[in-house]
Design brief:
single chain, 6 strands, alpha+beta, three-stranded antiparallel beta sheet
């Protein structure tokens, strides 16, 4: 499956280090300088930026994006960018290709990043979330992002464009909060079924 585990008596670390390096090797990105962030904070992707890719480049783009989606299994730090790029999988442009190149340069600087699970972690559920009101320049829909921790270990995360259009930012925040509460409720039921004490 391409997942690597490093385990000792204190913790467990899941990563896709070799998978990431193979991806960089196949895309000839190993010689490029790494960057500190997966995407610039001012980027807003749309279908009319840049020129359309030809059929071969589109096929390569789709395959690469599929591999990046699989990489988000252990890399929540790239989930938002991959989510944004996957919206344009059927009409990719040269601008989208540039954003993918930046993402690959970010991965070059952090190939071993992954998920960390501590053996001494408490069974305390904690969630963090946010929403960007009218982030999508095409549909004006908002994007909800959240991350949920069990103790200090990240166990659930999501970045998703919502199906409805919110009238203002407070409505978008309330909808995001409801999404997080549903996920926390489901996880608490799961832990109760496993007979684990939960706070």
């Amino acid at each position: 499956m391409g997942l690597e585990t490093a385990r000792n008596s204190f913790d467990l670390h899941l990563s896709q280090h070799k998978y990431t390096l193979d991806l960089l090797h196949e895309t000839d990105m190993l010689d490029f300088a790494p960057v500190a962030t997966p995407m610039t904070h001012t980027s807003r992707l749309s279908p009319d930026q840049g020129s359309l890719l030809d059929a071969d480049a589109t096929s390569q783009y789709k395959r690469l994006l599929g591999r990046l989606i699989y990489l988000t299994n252990t890399r929540p730090d790239i989930a938002f960018v991959v989510h944004n790029l996957s919206q344009f999988i059927y009409v990719p442009t040269t601008h989208h290709q540039q954003v993918v190149s930046r993402l690959l340069r970010y991965l070059k600087g952090t190939p071993g990043k992954g998920l960390y699970f501590s053996h001494t972690s408490s069974l305390h559920l904690c969630g963090f979330g946010d929403s960007d009101w009218a982030t999508c320049p095409i549909t004006r829909k908002y994007v909800t992002e959240y991350s949920i921790y069990l103790g200090n270990s990240l166990i659930s995360w999501k970045s998703k464009k919502q199906p409805t259009i919110s009238r203002n930012s407070s409505e978008a925040e309330c909808r995001a909060l409801a999404t997080i509460i549903c996920e926390l409720q489901w996880l608490s039921y799961l832990l109760q079924d496993l007979h684990l004490p939960l706070s």
